[in-house]
Specification:
Blueprint lengths: L8 H94 L7 H10 L3 H10 L4 H12 L5 H17 L5 H15 L2 H6 L9 H20 L6 H13 L8 H10 L6 H7 L6 H10 L3 H11 L7 H22 L4 H25 L8 H25 L35 H4 L9 H6 L2 E2 L5 E2 L4 H7 L60
Antiparallel strand pairs: 1-2
Helix pairs in contact: 2-4, 3-5, 3-6, 4-6, 5-6, 5-8, 6-9, 11-13, 12-13, 13-14, 13-15, 14-15, 15-16
Family: Belongs to the Frigida family.
GO biological process, one term: cell differentiation
InterPro entries: Frigida
Length: 534
């Protein structure tokens, strides 16, 4: 019986290595097959998606093509009617113009003057007239829209006014502020807010030539705005965007530039609706987020309402957040100013302005049922009262004090006397002793000579001894006794001079009409006559 040859270990090892190598090859082939299968599957899915997209676009183009054909056919069929209507309108304007030329006096009414200038297509005269009637802006705004309908080409009339404004703006002409305001009135009347929504899906109401001229004007205007970013006013920014929306020029400008104008001047009430008219519907959420980050919650409420995003951005939550931020700002201003008067005033102004903005926003969006403003109104009333009182006190402090009234018998006035507190209160008597006022001279002078010279009381005009001029000035006969003189109110009453011209007493016996000083309680004069005079 034969036996099998023994199997060596090397052969077994080699066999195992060959199996491992084949296994790796098989696994790699499997991975490559899987990768290729996935790749071809993704290609097939992509091709199918693109095919479906092309089919959808083809259907959309077909529907648009059919709609365009229908629109063109309708416009073509309506051309005779429109032509006859335009001819009738031109004939009406012609008759009105002839009637106006035949009437040299004309009409002084606002509407008639505006219509006359519009019929003449006098853009310069129209702007001047609008500027001259700026104080009547409320009736003027309504009459301009009616007057533009009387023009043969309203778009060309307004465009010529803007061409004049832009050319004068580059030349730094005076009076640009008024002309800017007048052009703003014209563009608002030509393109009212209601027309922004109606324009969607409709062709322009102006000719292609007018559209090209408008694009040139707005391009020049944009170049001027880029050169004066710091001096750009909110009204001019709104007017620029209004022209872009009205003449459908959005495609000519960078979207970032238009968005920056919207964000920088978002405080304008009509900016939110302009942003929606510019086609920022899909990006209004990002714009509102940026407004909230910049602490412009009030503006965010207007933008959210204009874009229909009130569920994503609840107005009540934004208002409460704005109220909290305004309180923090007022407190910060007060602390940074060390609670000074200026810091207190600024803090109260910030708080008052924020309260007014909240109340206005609540009223505009009719949120009274969700956001109560009773406490805010009370607080606003308190702040207004404090502000009014502060103005009154500062105005009273700034007025110069009136001069003292003259005595009742004076020739310059007849009001009550204005007594001032005495400046001799450090002495027991109202009038200091004679030896304190004038030290004892080395040589005794006679009393008549001693009182014959003028003596000036403090804060009083020169007072002379009772002489004839004194009597004539007050209309009384001179007497050394004050009882003979009509009782008058003086700042310093005349001393009772006796026969020897010395003061005999510190009080006037029976006279009681002197109310400024209590002479009855004054101590007797300390002057004692010298032995030589007794």
């Amino acid at each position: 019986m034969s036996t099998a040859p023994p199997i060596s270990a090397d052969r077994v090892q080699k066999f195992i290595e060959d199996l491992e190598a084949q296994k790796k090859i098989v696994s790699k082939c499997t991975e490559l097959f899987t990768t290729l299968t996935n790749h071809f599957t993704s290609l097939q899915n992509s091709l199918s998606q693109k095919s479906q997209s092309l089919d959808a676009k083809f259907l959309s183009l077909s529907s648009k093509f059919s709609q365009t054909l229908d629109s063109l056919s309708q416009r073509e069929s309506s051309l005779p009617d429109r032509e006859s209507a335009a001819a009738a309108h031109i004939e009406t304007l012609k008759e009105a113009a002839f009637a106006e030329f035949k009437d040299p006096k004309g009409s002084a009414q606002l509407s008639d003057t505006l219509k006359s200038l519009a019929r003449r297509m006098d853009s310069a005269g129209l702007v001047k007239f609008i500027v001259s009637k700026r104080k009547e802006s409320v009736p003027l705004r309504a009459e301009i829209s009616v007057a533009l309908s009387e023009a043969v080409d309203p778009h060309r009339l307004v465009l010529e006014a803007f061409e004049d404004f832009v050319s004068q703006k580059s030349g730094k002409t005076l009076g640009l502020t008024d002309k800017r305001w007048a052009c703003g009135m014209l563009v608002h009347a030509l393109f009212p807010e209601s027309s922004w929504k109606e324009k969607k899906g409709k062709g322009p109401e102006f000719s292609r030539n007018i559209g090209e001229r408008a694009a040139e004007v707005v391009d020049r205007w944009k170049g001027q705005l880029d050169g004066e970013k710091e001096g750009l006013t909110p009204g001019e920014a709104v007017m620029f965007l209004h022209m872009v929306v009205g003449f459908e020029l959005k495609e000519r400008f960078d979207e970032g530039f238009l968005r920056k104008l919207v964000l920088d001047f978002s405080s304008r009430r009509d900016m939110a609706k302009l942003a929606a008219a510019l086609g920022f519907d899909d990006k209004m959420g990002d714009i509102i987020d940026e407004l909230v980050k910049n602490s412009k919650e009030i503006e965010a409420v207007y933008f959210a309402r204009a874009a229909g995003l009130t569920e994503r951005f609840p107005p009540v939550s934004l208002l409460k957040f704005y109220q909290q931020n305004s309180k923090k700002n007022a407190t910060t201003i007060l602390k940074n100013g060390n609670f000074s008067a200026a810091a207190t005033e600024e803090s109260k102004n910030v708080e008052l302005n924020s309260i007014k903005a909240i109340i206005k926003c609540v009223e505009d969006h009719k949120l009274e049922s969700e956001f109560s403003t009773d406490l805010l109104r009370k607080r606003a009333t308190q702040l207004e009262k404090v502000k009014s009182d502060r103005k009154k006190s500062s105005a009273a402090a700034g007025k110069p004090q009136n001069k003292r009234s003259h005595s009742a018998g004076s020739a310059r006035g007849s009001g009550p006397p204005a007594f001032r507190p005495t400046k001799a209160a450090k002495f027991s008597n109202v009038y200091p002793p004679f030896n304190r006022r004038n030290p004892a001279p080395s040589v005794q002078q006679s009393p008549a000579a001693r009182f014959s010279a003028q003596y000036n009381y403090v804060g009083q005009n020169v007072f002379e001894a009772p002489t004839a001029p004194y009597a004539s000035a007050y209309g009384v006969t001179h007497s050394q006794s004050p009882a003979a003189v009509t009782q008058q109110h003086y700042v310093h009453p005349v001393e009772n001079l006796g026969v020897s011209s010395f003061p005999t007493s510190g009080a006037y016996g029976g006279q009681t009409s002197y109310v400024a000083y209590d002479y009855g309680s004054a101590a007797p004069s300390v002057f004692q006559p010298s032995s030589s005079t007794q």
